[in-house]
Amino acid sequence: MKLAVIGAGAVGRSVVDLAGEYGHEVVAVADSSSATVADGADGRGVGVDPDAVVARKAERGIVGDADPADALAADYDALVEATPTTLGDAEPGFSHVRTALERDRHAVLANKGPVAERFGDLRALVDDSAGEVRFEATVGGAIPAVSTVEDIEPGHVTAVRGVLNGTANFILTRMAAEGLDYDHVLAEAQDLGVAEADPSFDVDGTDAALKCVILANVLSFGAADDPVDAREFTLDDADVEGIRDVPGSALRLAAEDGRTVRLIGEATGETVRVAPRLVPENGTLAVSGTQNIVQIETTHAGRLNISGRGAGGPETASAVLGDVGRLE
Amino acid sequence: MSDGIDGHPDDDPAPDGGHASTESSTHTVRLELVDEPGQLLAALHPIADNGGNLLSIYHERGNKTPRGRIPVEVDFEATQERFEGIVEALRSEGVNVMQAGTERYAEEVTILLFGHLIDTDLSDTLSRIEACESASVADVSLAAPQGTEEASSARLRLEARAGETEAALAAVRELAEEKELRLVEPLTGVEA
Fold first, then answer.
1. Chain A residues lying within 8 Å of B114, measured CB to CB
2. More confident call, B7 vs A71
3. For residue B160, which of A229, A245, B56, B107 is within the disulfide window of CB 3.0 to 4.6 Å?
4. For B140, which residue in chain A has the nearest alpha carbon?
């Protein structure tokens, strides 16, 4: 498949880098201010040189000399939307996806905004398009959460829960293991590159909530006979508590009793909730460090657990490229 | 089914089905003891002497009843008839029996609370949880590493009546919100 990759952060760059390995060709790459479009975008079959894109981005902060609009207009089969997640109108990601669908091309999202904040709008665009939308990479990085729910069928899934933010999990794990307080561990996580300079999105539960909102939309729309009847979720529908105030003493009290605290997100077709929860210390959900886990409750197949890396360029790119493969 | 573990199959049948009196079931009594040596033992004698089979004792030393006494929760097995005899014997020994019932609490749930637990009157928090119909506080552990000024944490083990764990949690949730405390709930039903 011919891919246009919009967004040149860790995920976008990894998609560019790995696409060839999966048998796909990158014909255009754009970041917020620049783009490169392969000579072969007119059909001559010469893709973008991944090394050159990565080098230009590192050296000059641009991916090429073309305009981002040129990448959106390139001759691709699927557009990979890997720009940063934005809330509310989910722009500019939403418009990128709209452009692809209006051109009857597929869109594969790593950006959570459009599926978390405008799922209904997106569905309407898909209905009028020959293209499809896939978004495995938006939930749990490398973990095949969305496709597993789809395989089981959303009508046979009663709930999806899990640890969906590696930064928050790293902080809680280190606090419990070392008896350190939040501020100390956060500083350590920032030094290690596990937490951002502004960690709010992760530690306040927003990121985990967006993932749960996406899962709730998958469950709700997937289970409805008619999409008109499906309840649409956005971040505003989620009940969210973060880990910022959790004192070290609370983790010690939990440990004395064989328990620990994890930031757990839960989604059903009716509710979305993210909060620190008590879980058994050696239980399935008490994954360590930056690991994520997704637990799926089903009506006929019991409980499924999938754990793995919930973030990272190549990890998330593997989910993106898995989606591209499903579109072939 | 046991038909009277101590061999009294001829005890009067209970009105509700005719066999309850010979079946041992678990009972919980909540006692109030004066904080003096020997009180606990004195309270346990009437249970054993009247055919009760002791299962567990929660001695809530950190917790005081409104009268400044120590609440003790005792679980034991006995037939219904013996249970009534035991409660009578306890009362005639001068032990204050606050609550007595069959399998009053069937579910246990552990929660964490953190925030200004001391400033918001921890004992009031606990007695208000106690006052809620659904649950009883079985155990409290407090950690206040920075003294009373800073946020402290508590781990509470609640015992809830069968099927009422969710109601108990809802009551605690409401109380936590009112006192601006943070509540960490367990993932109930998911403990695998």
1. 245-247, 249-250
2. A71
3. B107
4. A253
